[in-house]
Design a protein that fits this description.
Blueprint: H1 12-48, E1 55-58, E2 63-69, E3 73-79, E4 82-87, E5 91-94, H2 97-100
Antiparallel strand pairs: 1-2, 1-5, 2-3, 3-4
Length: 101
């Protein structure tokens, strides 16, 4: 009498069952996680290099010039005699020289 099919040894086919999930994880790492880490490092470097006088755009779409840099916040001049305090993480990008002209 032969053992039930689900108890039979699989041999090389079992190796393929473990290989597919490993391949999927590796592909996921290179397509999703690695680019996200690179992008985050670039953003962290930009935020770390902010200084007074830089023109920035916030995540809310507010354009302004940095007036003062604090530890976790910035004083942003958005109009004459109008300053707002924002989180450094709210800065989406630096305004390029072409955009400011």
């Amino acid at each position: 009498m032969s053992p039930p099919f689900f108890l039979a040894e699989q041999g090389p086919a079992m190796m393929g069952g473990f290989l597919l999930p490993v391949i999927i994880v590796v592909i996921f790492y290179f397509l999703v996680i690695l680019p996200t880490r690179k992008r985050q490092k670039k953003i962290d470097a930009m935020i770390g290099n902010l200084k007074a006088g830089d023109k920035v755009i916030t995540t809310g779409g507010v354009f302004g010039t940095i007036d003062r840099v604090k530890e976790t916040t910035l004083m942003l001049k958005v109009a004459e005699q109008t300053k707002i305090e924002i989180s450094k993480n709210a800065v989406a990008a630096l305004q390029s020289q072409e955009e400011s002209k």
